Amino acid sequence: MSSTFQDLGLSETTLFAVERMGFTAPTPVQEQAIPLVLEGRDVVAAATTGTGKTVTAVMDAKRFGKRTLFLAHTVELVDQATKTFRELWPRATVGRYVESMKQGNAFVVCGSIQSVALNLERFKPDDFSYIIVDEAHHASADTYQKVLSYFTPEFTLGLTATPERADDKNILDIFKNTAHKLDIQTAVEIGELVPVRCIRIHTNIDLTKVRFNSVQYNIRDLESKIYVPERNQLIVDTWLQYVKDKRTVIFCASVKHAQEIAGRLHDAGVSAEAVSGEIKTSDRREVLARFEKGETKVLCACDLLNEGWDCPATEVLFMARPTMSKVLYTQQLGRGMRLSPGKESLMVFDFVDNASQYNMPCSMHRLFRLKEYKPGALVLGTKQQKTAEQGLYDRGERPDALIDWPVDALDYELVDIFNWQEEAAGMISQMEFVRRVDVQTETIERYVRDGLLVPDLVVPMSEHRTFKYFKEETLQKYAKQYGWTLIDDSNRKDLFLDMVRQMDMSYSYKPVLLKAVLLFADDKGRVKLSDIVTYFREFYEARRAAGLVVEKANSIYAKGGYTDAQAQRNILSNPFKRFEDMQMLHHTKTLGVIQVDESVWKKLTREGKQEIERICDEKLAQYYGRVSNLQLNKINVIALREGDRNDSI
Predict the structure, then answer these.
(1) pTM of the prediction?
(2) Which of 188, 388, 398, 465 is the most buried (most CB within 10 A)?
(3) CB-based contact 597:585 (threshold 8 Å)
(4) What SS3 class is residue 359?
């Protein structure tokens, strides 16, 4: 492994700039990632906060030497990147594309994803040869997809400290390769981040009835439980009792919560300020600057500091915002883990609220699977540090690092580290179950309701709602038992064609949808939803103009006077849903695109598409033959009744 930047093959000007920025040797993530990105592959560099990802990206973009776009989702991240580019690549013009600043003609553009997405028409698809996505775990979000699908760069690099998202698969699909992964524990082990200690503070707040969805609490339920004077005062009293004069960041649940805590600390004589995305950017910078200078002792933050900011001198974190998200908790933890002169460790205070097994919030011990808790003891540290400290605890002695902390070295607690998400890892949700078999959603729901399908894990999300999970072998067992065909990439195209051939039709919508897709799809199987709406309108209005039956009387197309929005809702709720259930078609809301599944589209030959077109035409002819006969019979019946009435007169 290299030990200097020279060994990595960087140019003299880059080496000079790196030295001027204070880097004396490459970090582990730079040592491993730089040689890989030099190979020219789309990659994601996954490494924890404070390990040199941005510098790595800038140095490689400079080596690449072509127009570069840096994307981030906060102004602070854009500003940091702009500064780094200007220091490491002084010959390139570096512009900002954020808020009112639109320097889109610069050689290097550092922009917020929101500003770039709203102004895509000002760029050409091939404007940038190199694109860097900071905090790349957001890249599967629709806004990022809108931008990334628009541009056609030669190379895309994603940077993230937290790749372990629910949609991690999508992230890797975007970037194809992982250049380097360095987790928090390893970063501490090798001395890139400071060790972490923990003190658990128990509250009397009951979260058991708080509703949640996967890893997110219902914010209204949560605020109603934790935004109470007793809990807020406990946070303040804890700081006064334990911390006193150490620089602290308190992560709060809402803007109101942050303001309340800051106000209570201020009333107690502590220099504390609240910071959030709701205050003006200039004011926010001033608040952060005062904290970095030490003028403000406590920052009460809401969301804003989860990503893209850190102050190495931060000594204490208060986790006062309950969260079930490992990603969010890890992001918050990273705000205080940078190395700083005289900083032995970071002290984390976990505020432990009462919760059920299934809506238990994250904590240091749950995150790192540690059952035993001793107040102030190392949670993250080198093996040598942990062994030495354990020896002190065994003798009933307190480590020197805890001299200033009012904790009892003999206190002990067992922590419940059960995590339903880990239990469910590798299992199949009920929604995924539907997508894996050739039966409809309603059938699976009925089988579960009637006890014919028994989940392996049931997670209560609220009083009336549960998530159900099945093991792979359970899926296989029920598929065999009930004669269902399992769907995967190898047979999805054939099953799609079978579905088209056997298409049942209550309305004419399915074949019309398929004909629209075949007409407008690009080489990746993507169709603008607006084009499909236009096709539907033209198809049905052409029938009306020709004096043909348009649809059944209760159809919006038969009634007429419908809007594009109504047509779109109809398309997505009726013909589209069944194809989506079986993962044949996908809808990306922000992009306004429907896409044929990649495994289907790639295998569809010209002859296969022609067969679908022919089947659709035949199905439509058969359908309208039936509907026309029904309507004719209805007219005849009415005529007979009128005749009978006249005869009776």
Answers:
(1) 0.63
(2) 188
(3) yes
(4) coil
Q: Are strands 130-133 and 155-160 parallel, antiparallel or unpaired?
A: parallel
Query: What span, in angstroms and rounded, lies between the C-alpha atoms of 311 and 299?
Result: 11
**Strand ranges in 306-449 using DSSP code E only, listed in sequence order:** 316-319, 346-354, 372-373, 378-380, 413-414, 428-429
Question: Which percentage of the chain shows pLDDT scores above 90?
Answer: 48
CB atoms within 10 A of CB 210: 25
Give the closest residue to 243 by CA, choosing from 406, 400, 381: 406
Sheet with strand 457-462: strands edge to edge: 428-429, 465-470, 457-462
Q: What is the pLDDT of residues 408-419, one digit of tens each?
A: 767 888 888 877
The single-letter DSSP state of residue 322 is -
Alpha helices (H) along 89-238? 113-118, 142-150, 168-175, 184-189, 219-226, 229-238
Q: What pLDDT band is residue 598 in, cutting at 50, 70 and 90? A: confident
pLDDT tens figures, 8-24 = 555 555 555 555 555 55
Residue 580 CA to residue 513 CA, distance in Å, equals 13
Q: Maximum distance among all alpha carbons in the chain? A: 112
Measure Cα distances from 194 to 377, 419, 422, 430 in Å. Answer: 14, 27, 27, 42
Pairwise CA distance, residues 466 & 425, whole Å: 17
229-to-150, 201, 239, 252, 273 alpha-carbon distances in Å: 50, 16, 16, 14, 19
**Burial degree of 596 (CB within 10 A; 0-12, 13-18, 19+):** buried
CA 593, 132, 276: angle at the middle one, nearest 5? 85
Dihedrals phi, psi of 79, to nearest 5 degrees? -65, -45
Amino acid type, 176 = K
Listed range (57-71, 300-314, 537-551) with the worst mean pLDDT: 300-314
In Å, how far from its chain's centre is CA 112? Answer: 17
Main-chain dihedrals φ then ψ at residue 72, nearest 5 degrees: -145, 170
CB contact set of 626 (below 8 Å; sequence gap of 6+): none
Give the whole-angstrom CA distance, residue 561 versus residue 572.
19
pLDDT attached to residue 83: 92
- Residues 178-223: tens digit of each pLDDT: 444 567 887 888 787 899 999 999 998 989 888 887 678 888 888 8
Give CA 53 to chain center in angstroms.
20
Lowest mean pLDDT segment, chosen from 149-163, 337-351, 414-428: 149-163
Token pair 């986790």 is found at: 319
Q: Is residue 260's pLDDT more than 60? A: yes
pLDDT at 137: 67
pLDDT of residue 203: 92
In the predicted structure, residue 531 carries a pLDDT above the cut 60: yes
Token representation of residue 506: 């209550």
Q: How far apart are CA 469 and CA 179, in angstroms?
A: 33
Check: CB of residue 512 under 8 Å from CB of residue 615.
no
